[in-house]
Amino acid sequence: CTFLPRIATNMTVLEQTGMCPLQFAGGTRSGASILSSSLSHLVHSSPNPGLTCNDYKSCFNLMDRDGTADGIRASPCCPLLPYFGLQYDAASALVLDPAVGPAHHNGQATSSTTGLRQGAGASMVNCALGLHPVLLQSSAWHPTVLFEAYADDAHAFHGSCPRAAYEGNEDMQLYADEYLNLTSVASKGGFYAPLAPDSELDAFLPAS
Asked: How far, CA to CA in Å, does 63 sit from each of 126, 129, 200?
């Protein structure tokens, strides 16, 4: 990945910006509820909030394995890299129903060669670790924006400048595409700036 060396760690991003991205999946109990409550509180307690909602298309099925491995390697969880290799270094039988066994297509067993096999025991943790460098890079380039995620559902928030949140989200999408081969689902995304006047929004939102 071209930008991984330019990212340091959670600690250095925290030192540089005063905050670091938050990832609530993989080990955080009720992480989705915590994320939702956190964003709701931020929006309702801010003078001019801007919040984006971003969902990555088929994230678990398409997430680039080399990019995910780079994310694990760059994290404090790097000792897990050999375990990740045991799971994903080679193609493996695609099992959709454990009771049935490997899936077949035209009489041939179907292999899993991309992605993280959604539903596998460690897939949520691997997804969070793989996506975290994208959040770190976004934080490094947009130090006033807070980035929060639950697995493939990622958000950018700014309390007083909706444009900053919108532009931070655009770069987060760009980095995910470059690094993990992920694209965003437009119909599941969104931008919320309830207090911003139309004149402010018209200055940066694309014409519909």
From this structure: 10, 12, 36
Predicted model pTM: 0.84
Cα 28 from Cα 53, distance rounded (Å):
20
* Distance (Å, whole) CA 65 – CA 91: 11
Classify 9 as helix, strand or coil. Answer: coil
Nearest to 189 by CA among 59, 55, 60: 55
pLDDT tens figures, 35-70: 999 999 999 999 999 999 988 888 888 889 988 888
Identify residue 194 by its one-letter amino acid code.
P
Percent share of the chain, pLDDT over 90: 32
**pLDDT of the residue at 147:** 94
Of 32, 52, 54, 50, the C-alpha closest to 185 is 54
Rounded distance between C-alpha atoms, residue 111 and residue 166, angstroms = 39
Cβ atoms of 109 and 118 closer than 8 Å: no
Sequence-ordered list of residues with C-beta below 8 angstroms from that of 65, at least 6 positions apart, any chain: 88, 114, 115, 116
Length of the chain: 208
Give the 3-state secondary structure of residue 88: helix
**54, 65, 70, 85: which is closest to 7 by C-alpha?**
70
Residue linked to tokens 């670790």? 129
* pLDDT 10s digits, 69-117: 888 887 778 888 898 888 888 887 777 777 887 788 888 878 777 888 7
